[in-house]
Amino acid sequence: MAFESLSDKLQNVFKNLRSKGRLTEADVKTALKEVKLALLEADVSFKVVKQFVKSVQERAIGQDVMNGLNPGQMVIKIVNEELVSLMGSETTEIALRPGNEVTVLMMVGLQGAGKTTTTAKIAGKLKAKGRKPLLAACDVYRPAAIKQLQINGEKQGVEVFSMGDKMSPVDIAKGAVEHAKSKGFNVVILDTAGRLHIDENMMEELQNIKTAVDVTQTILVVDAMTGQDAVNVSDTFNQKIGIDGVILTKLDGDTRGGAALSIKATCGKPILYVGMGEKLSDLEQFYPDRMASRILGMGDVMSLIEKAQANIDEEKARDMEQKLKKAQFGFDDYLESMNQVKKMGGISSILSMMPGMSAKMPDIESAVDEKKMGRIEAIILSMTPKERSNPDILNPSRKKRIAKGAGVDISEVNRLVKQFEQTRKMMKQIPGMMGGKSGKRGKFKLPF
Amino acid sequence: MEEKKGFFRRLVEGLTKTRNNIVSSIDNIFSGFSSIDDDFYDEIEEILVMGDLGINATTAIIEDLKRRVKEQKIKEPSECKQLLIESIKEQMNVGETAYEFENRQSVVLVIGVNGVGKTTSVGKLAGKLKDQGKRVVIAAADTFRAAAGEQLTEWAHRAGVDIVAHQEGSDPAAVVYDAIQAAKARKADVLLCDTAGRLHNKKNLMAELGKINRIIDREYPEAFRETLVVLDGTTGQNALAQAREFSEVADITGIILTKLDGTAKGGIAVAIHSELGIPVKYIGVGESIDDLQKFDADEFVNALFHIEE
Q: Does one domain contain both A187 and A148?
């Protein structure tokens, strides 16, 4: 791949360090020079990079490293620690008022950062937690912004409060809070228009909203791909409006996301969530420590494990393990495991969190086309229960019927059956890998 | 509401913050250093990197500057300013035939990642072309984002041009197909195709773009092709990856660099031009319909370094 990620880059640097055994002062400097370039290419603010490299160098050169038994590990440890401390060490969530008190969240940011989409995502998250959120359409400037929020609100099953685009956003905000109080909503999320941080009038509007309604939390939405300007934007919004937290969007792209480091380092506000895709469920918790591990090339294995644990039904997993041990693995189980993978955000999403996987992503993605998974599902669903639990009875006539039922060519049915046989064979050899709580990586290696 | 402004003033206004920032620091180092040494070059490096030019382009520019300094036996740091400007200007030249699509029967495909300002740029471009007396048809091929069609319809209404739109969730290639038939039937000069924002690392979405591209090739072979990738001026090094990946699926002929009215410097465009040879053709410096401007390398760099003409 033309682009090495920051993780890969640092990994390469440290691969060389590891192989040397002992670390000299010159080694540290060479390594840090690479780290500096990598961070700059990752769009980390120039000043933050300078600071970072300096502090790591101070710590790395000298006794810490020289006395260490494993110098390579020592440097990774230091770089990691510094990265974590730069990004903030604790996980923060949006602070909500207790019970029926109305929490008001104001979403702010530049144009195109993803405020409207993120607003709907947060509403969905809060709704799932048992809150009663109300969305307020305060973007009266961008054509169809209200409509966009209404459509997204509908998808999330959350009411959207709008007074059209002829009213001032301040009045809409007031109206929304009133509406919430009278109708029993306990969270109001204000979706404001995108604006430039240097646009005095527009910034004043936000200040006015803040004065008019009791805003509990002001959340800055920032595009993760933002370059050096991330520092200016977050700093200005923070100084003029006062922000309580940051949401980083579009992190599902291949950006190295240096903006995350810069923002945290300059304005000290926590990153609450990260936007990981276009689906309204794709909003994830931000874990500074894991992000650091990811940058260092350790992959976001922790995040992956958590995701898997939340989604995979423990009992089903145990059940499947039993079946595997007895080699009773049928097409129903195949479908089940496929659905579990889907629940976790699809194969590509899972693979991208594995260390060293990012570089190989394009190949993998073509191999595990998610549309193809849909076709596989159709084929399996076209089988009779008997055929699913006992694949050995599949003869040409049955296959022909299945192909017809699924609307695919018979060769695709054959391919699936063959793949299934291979899977079953493989599963027999490694029964411990499916299921169990260990969260081993091998668990996800389903050969689609 | 807003008075009409000339290109230069608009650009200068749009770039004011940028310029003040860059120029004051540039002027400081050009006057603050008594000799051309490593510290001097380090300072220039810092300024360029902070302008989002990226470390590679910055290094290339500085190497070029060092070479010229050596060749021309320059001793004064202040003389380097002009050299630096020339060097960037040379890289940013748009070329003679950049806007040929305006005078031909053409299809302009507008692509880019999410939130860069594609729909707004299409709306503005439609307004500009309409003002030139062109017959314009817009294809609302962003069928994914909620209300994208409505947003574009509003722009089409403002610009007073025709629009072909389908329902949300329908096949964008079908929208383009219909729009081509409409453009032919109405003898349109320019067909503008808005597309859904897609991250360049999403294989399926990029394949969809390839499909749209093929439809245009097949159904409208007589039309002149212009493919513009819209890049957010505040984006950092990832814009380079975007430009590169999009040029894999479409023959990109130019860049629309948006949101230059903030404090971002859009310096990544310099890197993209030098690395991929794709010129910036338009810049967005505000939200009104006149705020899309043709790119002029001279004026851009002059405005950036604050040279009055």
A: yes
